[in-house]
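Hey, quick one: can you model this chain's 3D structure?
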Amino acid sequence: MNSIAQAVPEAALQAIRKLIKEQGFGPGHALPSQRELAVQLGVSRASLREALSSLSALGVVSVQPGKGVFVQTAQEPPAGFAWPFAAQATPLEIFQLRYALEGFAAGLAAVTLTIEALDSLEDNVEAMRQVLKAGDFEAAARLDFEFHQRILLASGNRAMVSILSASAEVFLESQKLPFIRPERAMETWQEHRKILRALAQRNSAAAQKTMQQHVRNAALRTGIAFLTPATP
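Sure thing. Here's the predicted structure for all 232 residues.
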C-alpha cells in the first residue's frame, strides 16, 4: 500500500461528507443504517464507527443509539479564518505532527519533569485561566504554545525540541486556531489541567493519552477532523 494513501477511516469520513452533499441530505435527515453505509462505502463497521465519531465531534452528524445517524448543520470556520503557512504544510498536517510528537514528549516528560518545571507549568495553567476569563485569546495562544514548549523541553529529547524551534511560528499559529471559537476556549484550559495532573502523578501512559486527546480536540475545535492509526 502506498505510504501516503488515505487511512480507511479517513476515506470513509470524506465519503460520508460527499454522500451528504451529493444526495441532498439536510439537517435532521437520517442517513442509511450503519450496516448499509459500511457496505455502500466498502469499509468495516469499525472504520465506519470511527469516521462517524469524528463527524459527530465536528457537528456534521448526530449518532443516536437505537435510532440512527442524523445530519446536523456542519461547523464551518468563521469568516476571516486564514492559514499563512499553506506552502509549508496544511493545518491538518501540523495537528497530525503535533499528535505524534507531543504525545510522545508528554509521556517522556512524566518521568523526567523536575519540581521546578512542574511549578512553571502550574503557573502557566493558572495564567491561561486568567487571560481566558479576560477574553484575551492572543495571550492564551501564547501561553498554550509555552505550555507545550515546556513539556517538549522537559522530555529531554533534543531532536523534538529542534523541530519545534525550527517551526515555532507554524506551531504557534496552529495554537491560535482553536480560539476562533471563543465559546469553547475554556476547553483548552481544562485539557491542560488534565495533562498537568497526569504529569504530576508521573503517569507516563496517561500523560501521553491526555496530550494526544488534547491535540485532537484542538483540531476539532478548529473544524478539522483527523483519524489515528488503530492500536493493536
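One thing worth noting: The first strand starts at residue 61 and ends at 64.
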